[in-house]
């Protein structure tokens, strides 16, 4: 009797442990049985919050067990921000693997040619990739500017316009680095030495060319106009530069008082090029400055459809202004978006 009692006493903990193991294994390997869902880990979100939301949504069957497993495998602090697909049939271990080692669902975002850093910041924020404030602060950090070897207040001009894929909540340095690395890649084969402008000045002028026309076929012509004006030491008198200098207070209506306001960007008031780029130009705009059209034009006037009339004398310019800008009928119902390019 004593022997049987002793054996049962010794075996009881073993059986208990065995049945507990089976019990927890059943819970642990119990698969998620709902529909495929997208689960988003917010930037900076702690493990306990993630754990609680997984349990609340029914994606895991036991929050405490999930906690112990993550702690045992030393992965409580390794969950990455981003959005992930949780599929039917995944158990807790596989769900943790997804959040730690999986590739987040990436958001596609297109940065159009000619947008400035403030506009890009709003585009990225609208896609939940990064906050406007964080992006603007990052592109103004001098460490990047010094790396490019330019004298500028920001990375304006070097945030290459393209379609990118980022995870929601991507850190600001990664977003910015991706954009300037693409700029370097895309421009690496260009011969900047063929211009009398230095590389940074080429980018500045390319940004103006980009903003001045919606007609791609005019880029080289407009680049030639501005280069002619620079050679003659004429002021560029480019409206987009004036607008950029007052950007944070600009309501979309350029007035005479703005043209008279002296800023480091207002080319109606300063000689030569503005302080820095006013937007982020396309590769085509940069190429246009490096290979401008040779002509004698020093003026151009909008035809109100994205294209322009180019003239070589002030008299011809005034005539074009009267015809295209002072005739209300010629200013209606046209858009550069309707151009066939």
Can you tell me about this structure?
The structure is a single chain. The protein is mainly α and 341 residues long. The chain folds into three domains: 31-105, Dna Ligase, domain 1, CATH 3.30.1490; 107-187, Dna Ligase, domain 1 (2-Layer Sandwich); 193-338, no CATH class. The protein is 46% helix and 8% strand. The chain has 14 helices and six strands. The strands form three sheets. Strands 1-2 form a two-stranded antiparallel sheet. Helix 9 crosses helix 10 (219-231), helix 9 (199-212) crosses helix 13 (283-290) and helix 10 packs across helix 13.
Structural class: mainly alpha
User: How many separate domains?
Assistant: 3
- What Rg is obtained from the alpha carbons, in whole angstroms? 31 Å
User: How are the strands ordered across the major sheet?
Assistant: 1-2
The biggest sheet, with number of strands, parallel, antiparallel or mixed sense and barrel status, is: 2 strands, antiparallel
- Report the principal-axis shape: elongated
Q: What is the residue-averaged pLDDT?
A: 86
Give me the count of strands.
6
Taken in chain order, the helices and strands follow as HEHHEHEHHHEHHHHHHEEH
Tally of alpha and pi helices: 14
Distinctive features:
341 residues; mainly alpha; Dna Ligase, domain 1; 3 domains; two-stranded antiparallel sheet; two-stranded antiparallel ribbon; 14 helices; 6 strands; 46% helix; 8% strand; elongated; disordered C terminus
Give a quick rundown of the structure.
This protein is mainly alpha-helical and 341 residues long. The protein has helices spanning 2-28, 47-56, 63-72, 92-101, 117-126, 132-139, 142-148, 172-187, 199-212, 219-231, 239-245, 256-260, 283-290, 314-324, and strands at residues 37-41, 82-86, 107-110, 163-166, 299-302, 308-311.
